[in-house]
Structure formats: C-alpha cells, structure tokens
Amino acid sequence: MICTPRPRYHTCGLIAILTIATQLAGCSTYSQTQEHAERIIAHRRRRTARLQTSKAHNSTAIEKRSLDLHGVENVFTARPVDAYIREAVERNPGIQAAIAHARAQLERIPQVTSLADPMLRAVTRPEPIQTAAGDVYFTFGVSQTFPLLAKLERAGDVAAAETRMALEQLNSKRIQLIADVERAYWQIYRVDRNLEITREKRRVLEDLSSVVETQYEVGDVPQQDLIRVQTEIAKLRDDERRLVIQRGSAIAALNQLADQRIDRPIPATTPTNVIAIDADVDDLIELAANNNPELAAFHESISAKEEQVELAMLGYWPDLTLGFEWNYLKGRDSFVPPVNPSTGRRPAYSRKSEVGDDNWAVMLQFNLPIWTGRVEAAKREAHQRLIAAKKEQHDTKNMIAFRVFDAWSRVQAQQHTLRVLDDELIPQSRQTYEVTLTAYQSGKSSFVSLIDHWRRWLDFELMRHRETVDLELAFTDLQREIGMQLLRNEQTNSASGVNQ
What we know:
With 500 residues, the chain is α+β, with helices and mostly antiparallel strands. 64% of the residues lie in helices and 10% in strands.
C-alpha cells in the first residue's frame, strides 16, 4: 500500500524497494525496473564473503519488517481520503522528480564500476627515426588502465548506498505528501462540519425568530428580543459565507498537491467517527527509530560514507596500465659500397634496410602514489564526513523522538477533550438551552439568557469538530514520524453535532 514503510535493503532488498516505489508513483513498468535493479545484482555478486554475510543479515531484517505492536499494522483501511492520496502520489510533480533522481542515481553504479576508456595512440613523423632496419615513420599504440578491483567494488558500494538513500528520500517525500493531503482533506472536513452546524443552527434561530415575532406583535416580548435574534441570524449567514471561502482555499491546497486545477470541485465530505488510539509512547518512539524513512536515509548515507573511507584507504595502491605498440618501418636503399679497383669487385653489403620489417612492443606501467599527503587528506576528509553523518543521524533521531512525543501528547489531550465534550459539555449545554427555551416561552426567562445558552451550545459543537480535526491532524503527524500507518479504532459518537 502507499503508506508502507521502506526497510533498509542491500541487494535483493533494493529490487523490492525500487519496484514498489516506481509502480506506486506511476512510473515505469516492472520489466524496466527489474532491468535497472539487475545491474546492482551483477555488481553485488562480485562482493567478498564479508559483504555476503552483511547481506544475509539485512535479508533477515527484511523478514522482521512486519510489526504488530500495540495495534500497529502496515495496511490501509478504506477511507474517503485514500482516493485523494492515491491521486496525489501518482500525479504530484515533486514525487515524479524524486523518482527521476533515484533513477539517475541508479545509473551511477555502472559508471563507477566500469573500467576507464582504453587509450589509442597514433604518432606520425615527418622526419623519420632512422634505424638499421629502416625508417620509422608511424607508431600506433593502445593501452588500458586497470585499477585495483577493490577500488571499483568500493565505488560501486558507495553508488549503491546512495541509490538506496535516494529511494528512502523518495519514500520520505511520499509520506510527507500523504500527510499534506490528509491535512488539506481534514481542513475541508472541518469546514463542511461547521457549515452543517451553522446552517442547522440558523434554521433553529429562524424558527425561534418566528415565535419571537409573533410574541412581539401581541406585545409579550420587547422589540430588542426580535432585533437580537435577527442579528444572530445575520451573523450566522456571514459565518456561512466565510466558511465557503475557507473551503475554497482548502480545496485549492488539496488540488495543487495532486497537480489538478486549483478550482476543481471537491464533493462534500462525510461525517466520520472519532478515532481512539491506545499505544505506548515508548513503543511509538521505537517504531519511529526503526521505520522512519528519514532515519533510514541517514543509515544509507552512513553506509556510503563508510565505503568512502575504505575507498580512500585504497589510495596507496597503484593502478596498472597495459599497452601494445606497433611501429611501421619503411625500408630504405641499402648503402652500396664502390667497386674495389684492385679486385674489380664490389664488396659484400647488407640489404636488410630494404626489407623494413615492422616491430612491436608490450608496455607495462603503473603510477607511483608517493604524494602521501593527498591520500592522507582524502582519508581524513572521508572520516570526518562519516562522523558528520552519524551526528546528523543522532540529532535527527532525537528530533523525531520529540515530534513523536509531541504528536502523541496532542492525540491524548484531544481525545480527552472530545470525551469531555461528548459526555458532558454538549449534552449539558443542549439540555440547558432546551430548558431555557421552555422557560422563555412561558415568560420565566429572558431572551438574553436564551441566546447565551444557545451560543454556548453552538460553540461546544463547533469545538467538537475542531478538536476532531486536530486529533486527525495529530494522528497524521504521528504516522508521518513513525513512517507507517497505525491501526484506527473508531468509536461511535455519543453526541452528534448536526441533528440535535
């Protein structure tokens, strides 16, 4: 599902995470993803026995990924907001950019694990090199540099870790997007519920206005009572117009997350039951430490930095270059000695220069890493970057623990407030209003007292929906920090805010 967290993967884990991430966000087909992931497998199969042990350990961690602690699970329950979440994940340009970044990072692996291009050398000499065998006019050579195999493997490990880090960052963006969609949706929900209550209360006042107007005409109530109820009705109409404007702003926020027209209409939301969450904060903090994609990205960053430290330590090892060279020799006329006058014969002479046999050579060379200061500086740089990554991870872990605790505290506080509203304040304020209305109709209570009790009842019902939305938002923040969906236990409302 779209909210499932990403564990820390190595070889086979990277296939799964890349496949899930690309498919859920509306990217390439499975075969394309598999082709990319197989490149990592081809590289990782060249790893040593030490790294194979590490991969086995991570595969075991993947099997333990499914958690069921204090009602926590990894699946979505069907909710109206889920349709908007799926749409946003498929269309959001920020998610598409993160996918492209992860794909680009994946392409780094074959680049850093490949050999450098071979070098071709061609030399032509207008003034040839003269040898006894002939004149050398042209030389052709080819060479290939072979770095230490461990250097290529370390560089590949760095690129693979950075690819996994990019995937965790993609997952973090997706979880943040889900939280933003839920935040916009619950703002629309809050406005819709407030509109329902405002319209219902306006109809109640309009009925009351008819009663007051009748009593005013017969002289039973003063004119100020009629003016007061008409003023309250006018204020409710103004509240309706303000809420409609707020709804348009919340709709615009939801639409832009899904890359839709800002003014695309969103149907009215349906009332939902209040959620009940029963989870220990220490267990939630532990879940966040194990599942938060931001922390997982730091884990992969540390893995990359550790490989960079190992790569820097290999700087003392030279790179070997093998080459082959061919020299083209052009034969030249042999030196012909003159005829010996005493013998009348020409002395014997060599004609090898006229043959001009080509020659060839094999070249072997390697660099001399004698500038140790450069290598030592690279080692120190890699080590300090590793320390920085670990400290940043520690700092982020502390921040996430605080945010989990803060969201959990808000959830607890809002659940308590909702219980008080449902069990005490709303029923009592409603009963007080009804008693005051009966007393007012019999002339035993003032209209000011009636309106005050009605306003208090209205405020408590508006507060209830505001607290419901705040509870959902705190719950959303909690899930975002944990990196997985929590089980939603819904309880039946004991007090309805509309049909009372």
